[in-house]
Amino acid sequence: MSDFLRHFQKQQAVQPPREKTTKTECPYCSVQCTMNLHEEKSIKVSRYSVTPNKEDPVTDGRLCVKGLNAHSHAVDDRRLRYPMLRIGGTLSPITWEDALGRIRSEVTEIQRKYGKDAVGVYGGGSLTNEECYLLGKFARVALGTKHIDYNGRFCMSAAAGASNLTFGIDRGLTNPLSEVPLAKCIILAGTNIAECQPTIMQTFRKARQEGCKIIVIDPRETATCSIADIHLKVRPGYDAALANGMLKVLLEEGYVDRAFVEERTTGFAELEEHLKKVSLAEVAALCGIPPQLIVEAARIYGAAETGMIFTARGVEQHASGVANVRNFLNMVLLTGKIGKPGCGYGAVTGQANGQGGREHGQKADQLPGYRLIENEEHRAYIAKVWGVPEESLPRKGVSAYEMMESINRGEIKGLIILGSNPIVSNPNAALVEEALKKLDFLLVIDLFESETAKLAHMVLPGSSYLEDEGTMTQLEGRVLVRRAIRPLPGKARLDWKILCDIAEVLGKGEYFRYTKAEEIFQELRIASKGGKADYSGMTYERIEQSHGMFWPCPEEGHPGTPRMFENGFAHEDGRARLAPIEHQNPKEVATRKYPYLLTTGRVLQHYLSGVQTRNTSELNSKYPEPLLEIHPDTAGEIGLVNGGRAKVTSKRGTIRLKVKYSAKIRQDTVFVPFHWGGDQCVNRLTNPALDPVCRMPEFKVCAVSISPN
Length: 709
Ligand SMILES: Nc1nc2c(c(=O)[nH]1)N[C@H]1C(S)=C(S)[C@@H](COP(=O)(O)OP(=O)(O)OC[C@H]3O[C@@H](n4cnc5c(=O)[nH]c(N)nc54)[C@H](O)[C@@H]3O)O[C@H]1N2
Ligand SMILES: Nc1nc2c(c(=O)[nH]1)N[C@H]1C(S)=C(S)[C@@H](COP(=O)(O)OP(=O)(O)OC[C@H]3O[C@@H](n4cnc5c(=O)[nH]c(N)nc54)[C@H](O)[C@@H]3O)O[C@H]1N2
Ligand code: SF4
Ligand SMILES: [Mo]
Fold this sequence. Notes:
The chain is globular. The strands form eight sheets. The protein has a seven-stranded mixed sheet, sandwiched between helices. A six-stranded mixed sheet has the order 24-26-25-30-23-27. A five-stranded parallel sheet has the order 10-9-8-12-13. About 30% of the residues lie in helices and about 20% in strands. One ligand MGD binds near residues 127 and 155.
């Protein structure tokens, strides 16, 4: 050994690795668990690990397996580090200056030739509130296009649509999670909390220990069923019918809270009339559930002194998603179980900022603070905040999947995507891929070379949660500040800064001059003032002092609003709307050619289109490929073996998957998680039929044929 090496080794031995611990938040789901990132720095390498923040009041200091490994993708060497331009078929590094110059010429040329609306913007719910707000402003002011929408269209739109119609406002959970243990009956409809928001399972367990009865509605016996007293194994697509059956029991067996209905709702007579016509036997047959079990479930909810209903994508991701949710809201209102401790409703929000992401203007019809782009007063107010003439604000555009259709028809020629991987997560994904290939200019701002980035003309390296500061609104409606704790890798830039840089080269820089995220928040506060999602009373300082603040918070002295609807609903007359809901069959039912129902969703280890979690070996090794969950009897009929391969075909395409027997799923239904792209992308099969109100696609049911492969 040379003297130098000996010296070097000795040095290393005497210098213990330097340790640094910083507080951050998990970037994945809507619980937004806070955690500590530990960095152990020795001379050459840094080692990272994550531990829970024991003081987190929401999770009681827990993290799930995704959180425990959340540092992994963010510090990965495969992160994008330079802007890249497609030259001769491959993406090659270029400078920011060249990239921005190219964006200016592409965007200007497309808009000159085809008009302002020929460039679209597509956002996501993992961005901070500041970025969601800025993206909406960027589309309307820097590009002047009406075409902006985001992935929350596939996520929260049905629950939002239903809550707006019924309550006059949409905040995911009407009560803080700390009230869950006060409920004596909880209905979990199409929500798999054990795998999708694992760290809040403890609060439901606590409720159960206090004597709460839990009813789970899901075509599969999921891990969440471990806390269920009753499992209603509904046929996918029949939730509204099931709710009609339960409502009928509530009505006929005297569980209606007459005083509440009288004082705080409208529409009872119409609902009563409708329920008279509902046949429980028919409902039971449609849902594939014994009628007695439906009656029992309704009685438990009806008789309970307090109760809460939660829905998630199982109920919502249907072409009848809004109607489905509304029928569960009918149950909440009919029994008067809202606006009191332990009584309420929750749409269990999905993405990290799934709640804030839907409030501040990245939706086609929306302006900040839940204002509407077609409302003249709202337009005038926001135009004033932005300092632009009202006439310059575009009108409303179309929903996320409809943007893809518009691209496919050649109407939209340029697209800017920030924080989404649409060729994996859109329904009818093969068409979406074809459409994106037709674009004159596709710009993707991401952390990795995602499936969608691989198709792009230009890819820009954006920021991860460790580098990017801003506020996130978690599932309770609680706004949290997340601080930046690491430098950006390579030449990556902050997502919001990239938007400002593009605005600058498009000649609109004067509207986008911020030096830090907090300045954008100050503007967002003003823009949301007087809107439904009012953040105007919040400051970073106030938020940090109290582990988050619940909106609405209309003044600086205001404490925020943990529990909604204590005294009134948000419609002008203060009343909530009961509404008769006619059950509709899903758009595809089983036929001779396509005899099985396919439903889709999530597994514990992976997150959404999988780009981050597939790039995390600790997670990917535990669940490396999508499995077709199928009942052994059904598999036997088809001739599939456990661990063997199957071919699954819908009207839109075919994919091939590994088979996993599961006696826990209905015999007429199969389940496939959607975290993979390419030949394993289940969205090549899913049905893009859209809800008439909210434009949510029917991710949760389509008809398929299955054969051995
Ligand atoms: N591990 C993990 N956690 C996540 C995510 C993730 O990708 N991975 N994503 C986050 C996001 S963005 C979201 S939106 C949430 C989603 O959270 P969830 O909505 O809870 O997740 P899903 O698995 O999509 O669907 C929930 C359940 O609906 C059931 N289901 C299917 N069809 C029907 C039906 O017709 N009726 C009923 N009643 N149930 C049905 C499925 O069997 C499934 O168990 O999770 C968040 N958390
Ligand atoms: N079949 C089926 N399809 C579904 C669903 C289903 O249940 N079934 N669920 C739908 C739902 S609920 C959702 S929310 C959508 C989500 O689906 P997508 O919109 O595709 O969401 P992600 O996978 O989160 O995509 C995020 C992309 O942005 C990148 N990214 C993550 N964080 C950041 C960031 O901070 N900055 C930047 N610049 N990039 C970032 C990631 O690397 C990734 O490539 O999928 C929908 N699709
Ligand atoms: S529950 Fe959600 S936020 Fe918490 S650690 Fe798991 S994925 Fe992250
Ligand atoms: Mo979602």
